[in-house]
Specification:
This protein is α+β, with helices and mostly antiparallel strands. It folds into 2 domains: about 290 residues, Zn peptidases (Aminopeptidase), CATH 3.40.630.10; about 120 residues, Alpha-Beta Plaits, CATH 3.30.70. Helices cover about 35% and strands about 20% of the residues. Helix 7 packs antiparallel against helix 8 and helix 9 crosses helix 11. The two termini are about 20 Å apart.
Length: about 425
């Protein structure tokens, strides 16, 4: 079969409707297990119904859209991503992969192509862990990896539990640990398309990246440094318990450790995404007595993550002594690095070359649902599409021509796996 024609107008329609659903006046806000995420899932279900795709949802309301294969006993080919966003995010993070998968299945239906094995688009719930401090929530529920106790986790904006929001969205949280879930042995492969969230493709001037691996993370989302409020003019340095200076010293030391790791040829990132004093009590005439801090460390090297985590603890203890403060790091959350399947990478390179699509191989510093599939021993691949201005912000800027190049590559890669019966 020659490659079917991808419907770019359907792509424009889906992105336009997602924009209308999520626009908050500045960017996109489709909260995990929220009203807007529900509307986005309904949009995909509606289009799938028009094309005669099978539609089902699991106990956690992950969505599965399937074009049945000739032999439904064969392991299934899967693609997909998510439709939730961070607050005031962009319209392409996650959504690009979900739209791409739907375009492929709709094109196959329109061309009258029936694969040898089932081919399924999964649209996961709640990938963005800014809403719940649980990495890869949707894909973890799909594989039965969520502990029932996690259902009581509050959502960041309203404090209501994951259980509450699941029920409100039509899910069945009481089935956690009891309902049937994905079986990795029955999945032939999983390939996720996603916008790149950094500048690599832009700087290389190529539209597509073939991902080699996905970083894991160590995070402290609610660290607090407790000092003592005091008069800024009447308190000499030796009598101060300055939470801000303790935090600055700790952050600077960790940043120096990052620079040294890079000098040693190691790959990681370190980010302090929140650093704030108490609006109600801090002022220009007071020594700050409290600092809230978040710490985000990422790497494909699990040993490096552990080593840097040890440095975080060591630096916390040091500044307690040096600045007479108390450091509460709070709970540590982690995700495991994942390696993408070598055969899928090789196939993607061969196909991209045959289609005259320029590409580079690259790692992913951000986390994705593909990591969970890979860690369940499902052969997993990932494709990036060039995108300006990063992600998780309203200025995400993916060109439709670049996107359709990624869709063409995804379609050929999925079709190669879907027609194989070996």
């Amino acid at each position: 079969m020659t490659a079917p024609l991808m419907d770019v107008d359907l792509g424009h329609h889906l992105f336009s409707r997602l924009y209308e659903i999520g626009f908050d006046g500045r960017g996109m806000t489709r909260p995990s297990y929220g009203r807007e995420e529900n509307f986005a899932h309904a949009l995909f279900m509606g289009v799938a119904g028009q094309y005669g795709l099978e539609v089902r949802r699991d106990w956690a309301s992950n969505l599965y859209l399937t074009l049945p294969g000739r032999d439904r006993t064969l392991p299934v080919v899967m693609t997909g991503s998510h439709l939730d966003t961070v607050p005031c995010g962009g319209n392409f993070d996650g959504a690009a992969g979900a739209v791409a998968g739907l375009l492929v299945l709709c094109a196959w239906v329109k061309a009258g192509f029936r694969p040898e094995r089932d081919t399924t688009l999964i649209v996961t719930r709640a990938e963005e862990s800014v809403w719940f401090p649980l990495s890869y929530l949707g894909s973890r529920t799909a594989f039965g990896l969520l502990e029932p106790s996690a259902l009581e986790t509050p959502r960041s904006d309203d404090g209501l539990s994951l259980r509450h929001h699941m029920q409100d969205c039509g899910a069945s949280p009481d089935l956690c640990g009891k309902a049937s879930v994905l079986d990795a042995a029955k999945i032939d492969c999983f390939v996720e398309l996603h916008i790149e969230q950094g500048p690599v493709l832009l700087e290389a001037d190529v539209p597509v990246g073939i991902v080699t691996g996905i970083c894991g993370s160590t995070r402290y989302r609610s660290a607090v440094i407790h000092g003592q409020y005091a008069h800024s003019g009447a308190t000499p340095r030796c009598f101060r318990s300055d939470a801000v200076m303790a935090g600055a010293s700790m952050m600077t030391a960790l940043h120096e450790a990052w620079k040294q790791a890079e000098a040693d040829g190691e790959e990681m990132t370190l980010t302090f995404g929140v650093c704030r004093t108490d609006e109600a009590q801090a002022n220009f005439a007071a020594v700050p007595g409290k600092l809230d801090l978040v710490i985000d460390i990422r790497s494909r090297d699990e040993a490096l993550l552990e080593r840097v985590n040890g440095l975080v603890i060591q630096q916390a203890r040091r500044v307690e002594q040096d600045y007479h403060v108390r450091v509460e790091l709070g709970p540590r959350t982690c995700s495991t690095p994942a390696v993408m399947n070598a055969d899928l990478q090789a196939d993607a390179k061969i196909i991209a070359t045959s289609l005259n699509i320029p590409f580079v191989s690259m790692s992913s510093g951000a986390g994705h649902d593909a990591a969970i599939f890979a860690l369940q021993n499902v052969p997993t691949g990932m494709l990036f599409v060039r995108n300006s201005n990063g992600s998780h912000n309203p200025d995400e800027s993916m060109e439709m021509d670049d996107f359709m190049e990624g869709v063409r590559l995804l379609e050929c890669l999925l079709r190669r796996r879907a027609v194989s019966v070996s």
